[in-house]
Amino acid sequence: MSWGWCVLGRHWAMVVFIGPVESDGMQAPVHACEGCCAYMRNFVRNYNRHRDRQPA
Ligand SMILES: [Zn+2]
User: Fold this and answer.
1) CA–CA dist 24, 56 (Å, integer)
2) Domain boundaries defined on the chain
3) Rounded distance from Cα 16 to ligand 1 centre (Å)
4) pTM here?
C-alpha cells in the first residue's frame, strides 16, 4: 500500500495496484484503495453470479 490516486473512487488514498488499463493504444497503471477494491470484488462476484444463471 502506498499513498496515491484511487482511480475507482477518484480520490487520494492508500492504494494498491490493480492492473493496467488501455485506452487509445496507450496504457496506464490503475491503483485503488481498500474500500473501492472491496466494491470491485463485490462487482466481479455479482457479475459472475448472474452469468452462472444464464444457459450455456
Ligand atoms: Zn477509493
Assistant:
1) 33
2) 2-53
3) 10
4) 0.73
